[in-house]
Amino acid sequence: MREAPSIILVNALHEAGARLQAYDPVAIKEAQQILNGKVELKEDATAAAANSDAIILVTEWPEFRLPNWEVICKNMTNPVIFDGRNIYHKEDMEKRGFTYYGIGVGKK
User: Fold this and answer.
1) Where are the domains of the chain?
2) Distance between CA 75 and CA 34 in Å, rounded?
């Protein structure tokens, strides 16, 4: 995790004044040390998305492939997803009520 692009993203968002919540099923203990209070770490993806304006996906752990989108969308203040791994399909996410941005994906 020490060289993960997510660290750069967290630092930039934190400096811009964003309040961040995050979840990582594998590196949570290391994230606590490296991110040093810039992020409120949550126990699962649903909790990390609660009351948020957007989700930024920067990892592709299997549990992020099929979360409970109905609950997540309902509990967000602004259901937007920035998919940095392009594991979701724009049309599917928009049908679920999200505004979707695939990072690095050209217009089709």
Assistant:
1) 5-102
2) 28
